[in-house]
Design brief:
Number of helices: 23
Number of domains: 2
Strand order of the largest sheet: 2-1-3-5-4
Oligomer: single chain
Shape: elongated
Number of strands: 5
Structural class: alpha/beta
Order of helices and strands: HHHHHHHHHHHHHHHHHHHHHEHEEHEE
Distance between the termini: 58 Å
């Protein structure tokens, strides 16, 4: 019979293997895919001095303030795609140990290992561990918060409650949706007997959290009242959206739909159905076992099974309810529910006979890995902003001008133009930018404005003196941007004719380059096809 020390060492070896697998699954093609607008926003914010970063937090984007501060320090290592994304990889990987400890504390070490393995191979988590955004950080912090919450309830020391308050506040400052998981902590207390709830410490802790996040709440409330309010593009959720969220949380990942959209088509969803069914069956087993415990009355055992259920369901239910008034249901924001789902599945598998559970775990891992090659392949082929930059730099002529439909498009263009390092020496390097006019991108936070007001005379007669104008369309398909696109194109059509158009498609994003030439000038495009520079190959 193995000794306790031998079992302990075996467990840590297995946990080390899970960590290694998680790392290897998050590194492939890390620097292959072009930056998206959100990632460029992260880089654009974090590369500025501390004073400018704070200005952005106070006036433009308060929801990821802690991540920007962390990335600001991290970018001393460099600002290449792979470097800035590596931070998210490490943060995603760091979620595995606390999730193991949480599963071990709720049930046993076996549950902790299975939950950590499930999140290590989960395609949805891998996807956002490869993006230079705050999502992997908020999942890490909310997992730590949940761990300290469980420890605080079981061992209500001042140290545990302080750790809970600290991690909870940090999580909310990374992303406001972390607050929905804190709400689930409160709901889980209903499964405890009244004498075990320790309301005094609970109320004190949550009151402290509430006071400390007031500044963030004020900033977010002010932003929601602006004309370009955040989440203006989010539609009201449907049943299909909710089902699509569970499809994603199970580890499926679509190579066609936008990462912000939980709406896979039936054809996309069909290969992922076995994985979703496997998760559903394990959760159903967990529910059946929990109902038996809940029927016996409130107890610590009932609370331990209620924690992961509340973690998964409360944030989703609140997001759906709030969306009736103001749509906020976005699949990537609800990534904070994933550790709760992993715990539910792990506990359900642990309730099965040993060999059945082992077979189920192997099956879920295989199904999770099955979807990843398609994701990696798609990721390795998405170079929309690199290709767009190549097209502009290789086809531009002396005297050309360029108009970016939304200002961050120029940030992305400038980012990739800088990476040529003198390879190309054409008019494209000095192309005139008519809109938006920028200051110093590394110091002036105003360059992060999404749609800064164009000059009043931008399209008046004689204002555009260039014979050729490139219009870069990006994020032009939203209801609040389509009107401006039509206005710009109609104004250009008055004095110019469309000579060429190229489109570049990426992961949920599309870039279109439209070349306009003056009506009174005979200009022939050198090539209507896309020319690709060596950098993008």
């Amino acid at each position: 019979m193995p000794t306790q020390t031998a079992l302990h060492n075996k467990t840590f070896l297995l946990l080390g293997a899970v960590l290694l697998a998680g790392l290897l699954l998050r590194l492939p093609f890390l620097g292959s895919m072009s930056l998206c607008l959100d990632e460029m926003w992260s880089i654009g914010t974090s590369r500025m001095p501390w004073a400018s970063v704070l200005w952005v937090v106070f006036h433009q984007d308060s929801n990821a303030s802690l991540y920007y501060a962390l990335l600001h320090a991290w970018m001393r290592l460099g600002n290449s795609e792979a470097t800035v994304r590596l931070l998210s990889v490490l943060l995603g990987l760091a979620t595995i140990p606390p999730l193991y400890m949480l599963g071990k504390r709720l049930v046993n070490a076996q549950v902790g290992l299975m939950a950590s393995l499930l999140i290590a191979v989960n395609g949805f988590h891998i996807r956002f561990s490869q993006e230079a955004r705050a999502y992997s950080l908020v999942v890490l912090l909310i997992t730590l918060s949940s761990l300290f919450f469980v420890k605080s309830v079981e061992q209500p020391t001042a140290r545990n409650w302080c750790a809970y308050v600290l991690t909870s506040v940090l999580a909310v400052y990374v992303h406001a949706f972390a607050g929905l998981v804190l709400a689930s902590h409160c709901v889980s207390l209903l499964f405890l007997p009244k004498r075990e709830r320790r309301w005094r410490r609970v109320v004190t802790s949550f009151a402290t959290i509430g006071v400390l996040v007031i500044p963030l709440g004020i900033l977010l409330f002010a932003r929601m009242r602006e004309p370009m309010a955040p989440l203006a593009w989010v539609p009201k959720p449907t049943w299909r959206d909710i089902a699509g969220l569970f499809w994603l949380l199970a580890g499926n990942i679509s190579s066609v739909t936008s990462p912000s959209s939980p709406r896979p088509t039936f054809r996309e969803a069909l290969p992922g159905a076995p994985l979703l069914i496997s998760y559903f069956v394990a959760c159903l087993v967990m529910l059946v076992c929990s109902v038996k415990v809940w029927r016996s009355g409130r107890s610590c055992a009932a609370w331990r099974s209620g924690v992961p259920f509340a973690w998964l369901l409360v944030p989703i239910a609140v997001a759906v309810a709030v969306s009736i008034v103001k749509p906020i249901f976005v699949s990537k924001y609800l990534l904070v529910c994933l550790p709760g789902l992993a715990l539910l599945v792990a506990i359900g598998l642990n309730s099965m006979p040993r060999w059945t559970a082992a077979t189920a775990v192997v099956g879920i891992v295989i199904l999770s890995l099955y979807a990843l090659p398609t994701y990696y392949q798609f990721r390795s082929r998405n170079h929309e902003w690199r290709m767009a930059t190549d097209c502009l730099l290789t086809q531009a002529r002396p005297g050309d001008s360029i108009i970016f439909f939304v200002a961050p498009g120029r940030l992305l263009f400038d980012y990739y133009r800088e990476r040529y390092n003198g390879w190309i020496n054409t008019a494209g390097q000095d192309i005139e930018v008519t809109y938006p006019a920028f200051g110093d991108e590394n110091h002036d936070p105003n360059v992060l404005a999404y749609m800064p007001p164009p000059p009043a005379n931008l399209f008046t007669s004689g204002a555009l003196h260039n014979h050729r104008i490139w219009l870069v369309l990006f994020h032009d398909n939203f209801s609040f941007t389509s009107e401006l696109r039509q206005h710009i194109m109609a104004s250009l059509a008055a004095s110019y004719r469309k000579a060429q158009e190229n489109e570049f498609h990426g992961y949920g994003e599309r870039v279109a380059l439209v070349l306009y030439v003056s009506n009174d000038t005979q200009v022939h495009s050198r090539n209507s096809a896309i020319q690709v520079a060596p950098y993008a190959q």
